[in-house]
Write a structure and sequence with these properties.
The radius of gyration is 16 Å and the shape is globular. The chain has one domain. The protein has 215 residues and is mainly alpha-helical. The chain has 10 helices and no strands.
């Protein structure tokens, strides 16, 4: 691919990143484990938080790792071609997770995939963003709040510690996407109706898609 036009390389990165991100690991793993359709359980989302509601912590952890790897692997592969291609592939992977064509564009919130992408594109930014998530989650016990605040913080972190403006713009784009995907969670947080980490739901309701950062 070294001899390809840079625009074509970026286009291929976008398509491949999207397809990689669109693999619904939460749904695949729960079906393989004989738990049925994860979309009919808890919040109905395909991320690790909802997988955790099945009671299978290992499966939830595996979902988290695999979802995060989608953003990381997309970035890793295409950063060998160019930094821009890697960033585009990583962003497309988050889009793929959030809007998978295989599930009629109804996916997760993309937090784990976002963090995986950030860690690969710029590991210092990714690590500090994860630290913000951990602090917020341990303090307030709301996964959605931790996810929203940590990803919103990521472009600020990138501006402060990175000399590459593209990384800051990349993080800012992910932050905007995260806020959009968490709009229902934001509304419930304001109303005091959001579920805390580890709290089970009796019936299906739209909710956050993270356990530690996930979706």
């Amino acid at each position: 691919m070294e001899n390809l036009d840079p625009n074509i390389t970026v286009a291929i990165a976008a398509v491949c990143g999207y397809l990689l991100g669109s693999v619904p690991w939460g749904l695949v793993l729960t079906r393989l484990a004989g738990m049925g359709d994860i979309r009919q359980i808890g919040s109905g989302n395909i991320g690790a938080t909802n997988v955790l509601r099945t009671g299978n912590k290992f499966l939830a952890f595996l979902t988290l790792i695999l979802d995060a790897s989608k953003g990381a692997v997309a970035a890793l592969i295409f950063m060998q071609m160019s930094e821009l291609a890697g960033i585009v592939a990583a962003f497309a992977a988050v889009i793929g997770h959030n809007f998978p064509v295989w599930l009629k564009f109804k996916g997760g919130k993309g937090v784990a995939t976002t963090l995986g992408a950030l860690l690969m594109v710029s590991w210092p930014v990714g690590v500090l963003t994860c630290c913000v998530w951990l602090v917020m989650a341990s303090t307030f016990k709301y996964s959605s709040l931790a996810s929203i605040t940590s990803i919103i913080a990521s472009p600020v972190i990138a501006w402060k510690i990175s000399s590459n403006e593209d990384i800051a713009y990349f993080a800012a784009g992910l932050a905007v996407l995260s806020v959009i995907r968490h709009k229902d969670n934001i509304r419930r947080l304001i109303k005091g109706e959001e579920s805390k980490i580890g709290q089970k739901k009796a019936e299906k309701k739209e909710d956050t898609d993270e356990v530690t950062p996930s979706a």
